[in-house]
Structure formats: C-alpha cells, structure tokens
Amino acid sequence: MDTHSQIILLVDDNDANRYVVSRILHSYNFEVQEASTGTEALKLAAKQPDLIILDIKLPDINGFEVCRQLKANPTTAAIPILHLSAHRITSEDKVQGLDGGADGYLTQPVNTLELIAIIRALLRVKEAEEKLRQSERKFRAIFNQTFQYVGLLEVDGIVIEVNQSALDFAGLELTDVVGLPFWETLWWTLSTKTQEQLQAAVACAAAGEFVRYEVDIRGAGEQVMTIDFSIKPIKDDMGKVLQLLPEGRDISVRKQAQKALQESEKRFRQLAENIHDVFWMSEPQKRQFIYVSPAYEQLWGHSCESLHVDFMGWLNAIHPEDRQRVETAFFEKALQGEYDEEYRIIRPDGSVCWIRERGFPIEDEFNEIHRVAGIAEDISDRKLAEAERDHLFELEQKARNAAETSNRIKDEFLATLSHELRTPLNSILGWSKMLRSRNLDPATVARALETIERNAKLQTQLIEDLLDISRILRGKIHMNVSTVDLVTSIEAAIDTVYLAAQVKSIRHLRNSNISW
Q1: Following DSSP, what letter does each residue of 195-253 receive, concatenated?
Q2: CA end-to-end distance (rounded Å), the chain
C-alpha cells in the first residue's frame, strides 16, 4: 500500500512511548501528528487524519471516552481508531474498547510488524468503506435525482424498489408494490393500452434497448399526470442486462405551458394580423426578421417575404434625409431598449408617409438580450395636424405682431396729435393773456392778433388733416402736390415759442435774408 502523505494521529501522554511509536511510523513513510491529552486529540481529529492511535490512560479524558466522542461525531466517525495501551491489557479492556467503537486494540510492548500490519489493514478497510460509500452515494444520487420518479426492476419487470416521490404521488408504501409486475401497479392502471405499452417497453429494455416515451399515469385520488417516461437497461461488463431502471419526470406543467403557448401564439397572430400597425420581431445582430405582421404590406407597399430575403428592405424605403439617422439608431439603440424614431417612408406610388417606430429588447432564459420586438405606426395624420397647428400658430403670431404694431402707431399718433394740438393753443392762450393786460403798444397788439389768427387757422388745418386721415383709412382722399413756403412755417414755429422765450429772458435773432 502506498502510505505517502497518509496522516496518523498518535495520542499518548507518555513521551517515551510516543517517541518510539512515532519513529516506527516515520520509518514506514507515515506522516505523524502527536497529542498528549484527550482534549488535544479531539481538536486534531477535526482535521481528518487517516487513522488515530489512541492510548487509554490520558491525563484529562480517558481513551474510551475520546473514542466514544469521535465515533458519535459524524465528521470523525469514519476515522479508524486503534487503541494502544500499556496499562489496560486484559481481555475485558479489549472488549470494552472494541465495544466503544474502536477498530482495533493492541497492548504495549507492541511488535513493530504487527503494528504496521494492523494499521495497513485498518487503512485498507477504510479505503474500501469509502469506495463503498461513494458508490452508494452515486447510486442514491442517480436513484433520487434522475428525473422525478425512479424505480428498479428485475429483468422480467418485477418491482425491486421505487423512490419516495413516486410512492407519495400514488399514495402507496414500498411494500404495496415490491414483488409485483410493474404494469400491475397503480400508476399504470389508467387503461389496458397503457399497461400493454409498458409491458412492451419492459421487453425491449430487457433486450438491451433504451425506451422512452410520454404517457399519462394515475396517482392518488384519481390524479392524472403526464410524464416523460424511460426504461434504461443496467448491464454488466459483458453487456448482460442485470436490472432495469425506470424513470419518469413530470411534464404536466410543460404540457400545459405548451398548450398555453400555442393558444397565446394563436391570439397573438390574430391580434398582429388584424391591427393597422406593423408588429415585427428581429435579430439585429444576425440581420434577420423572425416575424413581420401583414400590415407591413399595406403601410410600406412591399411584401413581408421581401424582408426575409432582404433585411435592409424596410430601410431602403425610408426618405433619404431620414435613412442614415434611423439606421444608426436601430443598430445602436434597439438592443438597449432606447429605439424610438419618427421618419418618412416613400411608397412605391411615390406617396410619403410618416412612421413612428419603437423597439423593445427580448431576453432569453439566461437573461441575455438576443431579439428585438417592435411596432411601427402610421402617424401621417398626426404630422399633418401638427403642421396645421404650427401654421395657425404662425398666423396668430403675425396677427398679434400686427396688432401690437398698430397699437404702437396709434399711441405715437395720439402723442403727436396731443403735441400738435397743444402747441397752437399755448400761443393763443399766451397772447390772449397779454392782450387782456391792455399795456401793449399798437405794434405788439397787431402782432398778437396776427399770431392768434395764424394759430387758429393752424388748429383748423389740423382738424382738416385728421379728417383726411379718416378719409385715407376709408380710401376716400385725393392728394394734391404743391410747393410749401418754408419761411412762413419756420416763422410760425418761432412765434409759437416766442412768449415762453420772452418769459425766460431768452433772446432770438431772425435773419430774413436767407436764400432758400
């Protein structure tokens, strides 16, 4: 036996004994860990040595108790324990030790060859037991985990064993089915056809074939379940069939889901094929469409089949001014769930249609996005309404601006009119006050009367001008072009401010020799 790296825990409170045994073990290539107390032994045993050599007489816990605790602990129960004692050497001591769970019992002084032989024997037993446990675990794993319902049959179909899940479904105990032909058990009594089908499957499996099919079986309380059923032959190294392994997995939910999916797909197609919007599903990375609803032919004016031949066909119909923007958005945003574009398409008859298209990513069973579903709708009416709304808004803005301009002009006109009315009146009122003082010389009086008369005429002319404006607005005025004497106009303006200037002692000079 290859003892390389095998670890033996040596527990002995006698340093000399521990030294001697440790040297023997080292000479046979065992790795040795040492402990001098029971407490220390329990602690080191948790590290799973391959074997423990345990003295009986220890300063804190005797070896019998240490052995009992180790065997009672599931994590250390499989470790072989060999008692080695120099004090407890009677037959009763050996019986007590072996009854306490020890796998061997030797007394000091010990023969080296005998010690090594027993150690090797115990390690071989441990190795064999471990292999047996592994084999049992594998069998149980297959028995309990392969599909949902598992059994074991003789080659002729007689039941040997059935797992608990199958028994629970039928409301049976193992004793109710063991020894019966499999097809006579409750699961297969739905119909004679089901039993005959199973008998045929058992015969095929006994001949070395693997049989698998879907079938309905009966459970407790008249339950019916659809299972994925199989019978697998178990063969020896020579290929001889020794036993049969029937397995069944409940697929009732899957069958219901398939039916629901079929109904859902039917409803989806009814909806998709009767709406005016285009519903589509694609794999952008593969550049292929999975589905396109018939509305595409009405909206785009091309056949749905054309898209399966040419993935880019829908893009080619997009208005040249929109095409690059839409193509970039589709391939960059569709898989991220951010695809939402409005664009124009040109139909085969040359008409232009506005489209709004949105894309939604679809995840697979691994939560990875692999497809995109989308919907394209005709928004031409909306775009037309928006254009009309914008035109009306523009007209409203122009009307508002015109009204504001008109109000501004009216305000300016009224301000000017007020000024033009006040100016002559100021002159008339000013000279009138001076005339009432009766302290004016004849020349000044004459000038005053002349100024009053001129400004009165100016007021009359202003009223006539206002009437002319009214006629202009009504389109009933005729314009006469004539020469204007600027000197008279300037002198009238000077006379208007003369009195105010005189009150403030402001002098003015008049030059009548200016040539115009």
Answers
A1: HHHHHHHHHHHHTT--EEEEEEEE-GGG-EEEEEEEEEEEE-TT--EEEEEEEEEE-HH
A2: 142
Q: Which helix (H) or strand (E) holds 84?
A: strand 81-85
14: three-class secondary structure by DSSP: coil
Closest CA to 192 of 184, 204, 203, 181: 184
Q: Please give the torsion angle defined by the CA atoms of residues 485, 487, 493 and 496, in that order, rounded to the nearest 10 degrees.
A: -110
Apex 29 CA angle, 23 and 32, nearest 5 = 55
The tokens for 150 are 């598992």
Count of residues in the chain = 516
| Residue 2: strand, helix, or coil | coil
Structure tokens at 409: 């002009």
Note if the pTM is more than 0.70. Answer: no
385 SS3 class: helix
2-48 pLDDT, tens digit each: 445 689 999 999 998 889 999 999 999 999 999 999 999 999 999 99
Q: What percent of the chain has pLDDT over 70?
A: 86
Helix, strand, coil percentages, rounded to 5, for the chain = 55, 20, 25
Mean of the per-residue pLDDT values for the chain? 84
| Residue partners of 372: CB distance under 8 A and separation at least 6 | 281, 282, 283, 284, 334, 335, 339, 359, 360, 361, 362
Distance CA 411, CA 480 (A): 28
